[in-house]
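Progress report, Aim 2. The chain analyzed during this reporting quarter is listed below.
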Amino acid sequence: MKVITSLIGKGDLIEQPDYNCEYIAFAKYGNGMWQTRKPCNKFKNNALNAKIHKILTHKYLNDDIFMWIDGDIKLTADPEELVEIMGDNNFLFFKHPTRDCLFDEAKDCIRIGRGDKEDITEQYEDYYELPRHAGLIESAVFLRRNNPEANALMEKWWIEICRYSSRDQISWLKVFLNKDYILLDNFLNNKYYGNI
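Predicted structure tokens for the chain:
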């Protein structure tokens, strides 16, 4: 299993515990156990330069399972425990800690200035037929398999991210509605990781 992050611009990679996995960072500079790979720089939007590695990991690396962690996440338990929970499923996500609706997420992103307001508004309008309060993830941490079925869903997610807002949590339901995945509670309070 590979634990993946991306760091575009300034900042330091967080030192992680020595679990039985590879740590790969798409970043200019590494430290400690992080192996670095050249980050994407094709987009004017740095969020997309980082996010392509998050969503299309299978285009850059090869392994059976990938664990994505945002740059401010520190692991506090062996990721293999999450792999066991994931079982035969292709994905393991964590519920958003405060919202369960992509439309509430879109409104909040506009309110606090996260993402382009016009892109999010268009997405909100185009997604209008999707169900309300049908689930929302916190995408700072998730596990996924590297197989044709999982990769196809991630590629659909990438299309939504590029078509609309780079705020991937807004487009998640469009792709994953009625799909199989494990969804865990307690994004903010669990034994697997913490925010730095």
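The longest helix spans residues 148-163. Strands lie at 2-7, 22-27, 35-37, 65-69, 73-75, 91-95, 137-145, 182-184, 193-195. These observations will guide the mutagenesis work planned for the next reporting period.
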